Amino acid sequence: MFRHKGNRRTFIHNLRLASTLSFIAGIVNIAGLLSVATLTTNVTGHFAFFAEEIALKNYSKAITIVVYILFFLLGAFVSNFLVEIFTKTRPRIAHAFPMTLEIIILVFAGLSEGVHPNYIAYALLFSMGLQNALVTKISESTVRTTHLTGLFTDLGIELSQLFFYKKASELQRLKRNIFLRLSIIAFFFLGCVLGGLFYSDFKLKIMLFAAFVLIIALLFDNVIVYYHLTKRRIKSNLHEE
To answer: How far apart are CA 128 and CA 104, in angstroms?
Structure first.
């Protein structure tokens, strides 16, 4: 799910990646909105809020919104920076470093009762910048999990192409892309709904559940990889005998 890149990635790899991380993004999206009353999974709306605060001459709030945007950008920068560094020395687990950092941030957010709302927003935006950059890097821009505008655009284009693509291979690829987009949207929506339902009872502690899902995803990825490596070693030893 995380390790395979380029031609080694399959539709199933992207589907697992998309469903897991879009679910987490959905939880962060609703929890951020309910707890700090701001967007925490993307920055598109923040530009409108910034313009509004400038028009109202509320410059201190406008500066805060700029900082929100910069934290998302910083998260994306740090994510790719870590991957590039560790790809040279530990390529098999390079992805684990930004993911681990995201887990730490989500745990911090889950235990941040009494912390100033702006700091929570900074942390969540940074974590979503981390996640979005990592997913984009791994999938070569096939998967994005923290916002839906581009997904609905791609989905609309691909649905229209169903009327024009006739070759079996083209239709198969197109239908897989459509299914992938729909899966991301569905799991993002599911994360939002479940996060909203449980927020009244758990507040920001719902972030601990999101962190737990990430941990399970990383462990599952490692188990699958080591299973296949062990299987290959056994086969290799049998052939040598």
So the answer is: 13
Is 146 in contact with 131 (CB distance < 8 Å)? yes
56-to-44, 61, 204 alpha-carbon distances in Å: 20, 10, 31
CA 189 – CA 148 distance, rounded (Å)? 10
Task: Give the per-residue pLDDT at 64.
Answer: 97
Contact call for residues 42 and 58 (beta carbons, < 8 A): no
- The torsion region of residue 15 among left (phi > 0), alpha (psi -120 to 50) and beta comes to alpha
Beta carbons within 10 angstroms of residue 100's beta carbon: 15
Residue 75 is encoded by which pair of tokens?
Answer: 């998260």
- 224 pLDDT more than 90: no
Is the pLDDT assigned to residue 4 strictly greater than 80? no
Q: pLDDT digits over 51-88, tens only?
A: 999 999 999 999 999 999 999 999 999 999 999 999 88
Whole-angstrom Cα distance, residue 44 to residue 30?
16
Lowest-pLDDT range, 27-31, 106-110, 127-131, 215-219?
215-219
Total-model pTM: 0.90
In Å, what is the CA distance from 46 to each residue of 50, 51, 65, 72? 6, 9, 6, 11
Cβ contacts of 46 within 8 Å, gap of 6 or more? 38, 39, 65, 68, 69
The Cα 12–Cα 236 span in angstroms is 26
| Residue 147, helix vs strand vs coil | coil
Q: Using alpha carbons, select from 142, 177, 130 the residue that is nearest to residue 9.
A: 142
Instruction: Please tell me the distance from the alpha carbon of residue 232 to that of residue 8, in angstroms, as a whole number.
Output: 17
